[in-house]
Amino acid sequence: MFQRTPSQTVRPSAARLRALAVAAVAAGTGAATLLGAGVAAADEARVAPLAATSATTTAVAGQAKAQSKAAATARQAAAAKAASWVQPVARYTLSAGFGLGGSMWSHKHSGQDFAVPSGTPVSAAHGGTVVKAGPVGAGDGPAYGNAIVIRHANNTYSQYAHLSKINVRIGQSVATGERIALSGNTGNSSGPHLHFEIRTTPNYGSAVNPVAFLRTVGVRV
């Protein structure tokens, strides 16, 4: 008859348990580290395109702002030019002045003469609309020769006479400083020059001192 041998439970030692615990902690730490690294890499992958998009948006916004500022500056310059007055010719010698008397005129001189060679470019002293243009003083009489009258704001008109060539037509809008004619020696003229008037109506007989008027708008001749 066989005799049964009692079983024995093998218990791990305390040192063995500590070693297993340390190994488990180390494994957990490594996993956490790997997981953290993966999360950080994923975050960087998401942030990179966002940063690039933000930089592009900032650059586009900056460019748009610069373009808007440039456009505003251009508009201001155009507005300033439109509001300004200029001399009708660039280089000249002042000759007969406003109110001068003499045998050359049936009445006193109604404008300011700018002595210039024939063919000198004549510019609109201010922006406006051409209301007269043609020979025989454009209706004001043969003494003026070829002439132009431009209507400006506030019932002000400018006249240009003794022209050799007219480059505008009635009803045409002109800008300040735009070339409208070439000077000449047509009509009652003792030599090549531009006769320039400032009027309160488009017609002869309403002239005011053009030099004094130009001074009030910041132009000295």
UniProtKB/TrEMBL annotation:
InterPro entries hit by this protein: Cell_wall_metabolism_enzyme, Dup_hybrid_motif, M23ase_b-sheet_dom
Keywords assigned by UniProt, alphabetized: Hydrolase, Signal
SUPFAM superfamilies in the record: Duplicated hybrid motif (SSF51261)
UniProt-listed CDD domains: M23_peptidase
Entry's Gene Ontology molecular function annotations: metalloendopeptidase activity
Record bears the keyword Hydrolase: yes
Domain M23ase beta-sheet core: 108-210
Annotated signal sequence range: 1-26
Pfam families the UniProt entry points to: Peptidase_M23
Domain of life: Bacteria
Its EC number(s): 3.4.24.-
Protein name: Murein DD-endopeptidase MepM
Lineage: Bacteria, Bacillati, Actinomycetota, Actinomycetes, Kitasatosporales
